[in-house]
Amino acid sequence: MIKYTNQCLWLISLAFPLSLNAQIFSSNGATVFINTGGQLHCNGGIELNNSSNFINNGQLRTTKNSTGALAGTLSNNSTSTIVGTGDYYIEQDWINNSIFNASSGSVFFYGNTEQLITSNNGTVTEFNNLILQGSGTSNNRKKSLQNVNARISTTGSLQINDRELATGTNSMTVLNPLNNAISNSLTTNNEGFVSSLPPGYLSWSTNSNSPYNFPVGSSDGTIRYRPVIIDPKTNDLNIYHVRLNNTSGDTYGYNLSQHDSEIETLNSSFFHSIEQDVNGQSANVSIAYSQSSDGDWSAIAQWNDGSVLWNSIAPTNNSNIGTYSALQKVDWDFNNPAHPYILVNLEDELEIPNVFTPNQDGANDVYLVSGKGIIEYNIVILNRWGNIVFESNDISNAWDGTYKGTPCAEGVYFYNIKAKSLTKEYNKQGHITLNAN
Hints:
Helix content: under 10%
Number of strands: 46
Number of domains: 2
Shape: elongated
Number of helices: 1
Radius of gyration: 30 Å
Distance between the termini: 102 Å
């Protein structure tokens, strides 16, 4: 172990960086400088104690090439301070119990085993640029918050790449309101994402009417990347909080059997939690899913605490988030304080009238079939001699009782309807009475 006590150590030379092999660099009250272009490379750990003053304007790198207990770890303790514009390369854990001012610098977590961002006294680290790297798989893909929240500064960025930032029950908050302040790898099935457990979130401060992509996912059980895009309708300040819950809503008491009459089925594999700090501000909200592994969904529902059930918030639009399908709710105002959202299919039905009166009196003048959740549709209407008088593939297209502009005679006509929803197929035949009186 190399110790510096009550003295000043200057690391100046770009040409001659200091490298400590298999050592713990421990400062007990010393002031340590790394000047611009200088490097401190420790093949062990960095430990700052007793009001040490660490000024880094160059590069600090700590690696795991040691058998010591703190190998690859930076530990900032006992009213010590870390300041400067330099960069930090950390191969194991980040333990911050005191003052860290990242300025314009970057912190790289590049280890191939799970790395922790933690504190023994609840100190929240505010990073400028936090960059996740490494080649570890499974749990060793994670950079994890342990017993503490963390932040990205108002000018910084969160670069997830292909790693998992696991916040656990804690939250990562991005204070930079630029909509590119969070980035991740978009390679299908190898995306980088932020995972959280209740009450943890990925939170983002916003101030523009542009889309913010929350790359949330989970490796708890089945690995899922299911991002959410929030597109505020104004430039007002707000903070949005997003989490993928990689389990059935039943797990957290959001009973899937309790829903309004419009809903037929609910996604039992996962749901999202989405909150807004300033309630009532409108935004477009898009939730991603994989058709190949999640199935097809037609709408979004939200849990209603007041009535203790899932309420459909249809209509929703079909959209895409990268290679994923998505459902988008336009101009959603977050009027329900409950925050769980789930993919649903609505109860399918066809409403087929059997009489209409095309007499231009403004009532029942056209023949129109209606239905919910219909994705394919064809209707053919024939007269009593079997001649086609009307045909359409659009369920919103009504028959006005004419054929080639000429009113059809009163009497009985026949329909054949073939339709399909996400869950049902219809093949209907019947008769229509055209009454012009």
